[in-house]
User: What shape does this take?
Amino acid sequence: MSKNVEEWFFEDFTIGDQLITKGRTVTETDISLSVAISGHSQPIFIDEEFAKTTSFGTRIAPGELTIGLLAGLLTRLGILENQVGLIEITCKFPNAVKANDTVHAETDIIDVSLCSKKDRGIVSFNDRLLNQRQEVVLDTRRVAMFLCRSSN
Assistant: This one.
């Protein structure tokens, strides 16, 4: 579904809507920078020769980078502009992200509820990050707080 909304507020989210992002290709540099910044230097992320001996056959992206890719793609839609708090996120990583994968995000709005303070509301999402083969590489359930348009 495509809504013509430049800046999303709580009122713009409707249960049942699905939003789909454009794609982004993951590079070796993305993986290397993620490892350098986080210090998450397990061999599967930094050692190509070791990684060749695994079921993946090559280096893979850390989960933190995969979550960051999801957030970045959703930000491009403008739906995180008025998010004022991330309340909960649960993640599953059914497949790995590898260099040269092109990923895109799909998010379903599964619940909306106005807070007792009427200037904000809670939105629940089911997010998926998929690669170019339509394999899910990240599946999340995310609950976040958003400003209401009337609070602006």
In short: The first strand starts at residue 18 and ends at 20. The mean pLDDT is 93. The chain has one domain: 10-151.
